[in-house]
User: Which sequence fits this backbone?
């Protein structure tokens, strides 16, 4: 149930990207936080670059260290390219799928909707954000929650065609998870190979 609850703009500025969603401060201060933020930094070591990429992935998907490491171990046991499989496992988390469906504006908001029992998988309420969504599963808004203003506002005008691995049914307020996304379809700018190299040390 643990998650990062610290200052999000600070983290976004550290990576120079709006990893938690649109950020007004980041557009004005696109440099690292702290009194030396605008100074030229010394060259980061290879380990530092790899660690930074892992932290970026963890913050982006809202996963803490132990859970992230367990996902990596799971990815190593599966057939295929480990880095890509790791990202696909992260994309298959229920909170992330809810975010991709446009039901919530951020992954943190999606996590909250799941925890508050507003989301169903195949018609059954699921309140576990890390729940693994499989191909063919239908993720939707609970009947009682369809009238919630926050959900209606998020879905208004949302472009579902951005994510070809999801099929949205507007009438049912539900989306079918067709298959795990290919790496080229995942929009996150994460260099997953650096994470694999870090864990392989």
Assistant:
């Amino acid at each position: 149930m643990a998650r990062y609850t610290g200052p999000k703009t600070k983290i976004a500025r550290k990576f120079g990207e709006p990893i938690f969603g649109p950020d007004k401060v980041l557009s004005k201060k696109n440099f690292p936080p702290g009194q030396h933020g605008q100074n030229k930094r010394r060259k980061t070591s290879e380990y530092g670059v790899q660690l930074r990429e892992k932290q970026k992935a963890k913050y982006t998907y809202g996963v803490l260290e132990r859970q992230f490491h367990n996902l990596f171990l799971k990815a190593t046991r599966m057939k295929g390219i480990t880095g890509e499989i790791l990202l696909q496992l992260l994309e298959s988390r229920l909170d992330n799928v809810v975010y991709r469906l446009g039901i919530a504006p951020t992954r943190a908001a999606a996590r909250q909707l799941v925890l508050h029992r507003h989301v169903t998988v195949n018609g059954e309420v699921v309140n576990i954000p890390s729940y693994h969504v499989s191909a063919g599963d239908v993720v939707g808004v609970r009947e009682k929650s369809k009238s919630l203003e926050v959900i209606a506002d998020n879905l208004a005008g949302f472009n579902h065609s951005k994510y070809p691995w999801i099929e949205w049914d507007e009438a049912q307020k539900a989306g079918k998870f067709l298959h795990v996304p290919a790496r080229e379809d995942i929009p996150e700018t994460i260099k997953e190979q650096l994470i694999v190299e870090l864990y392989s040390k």
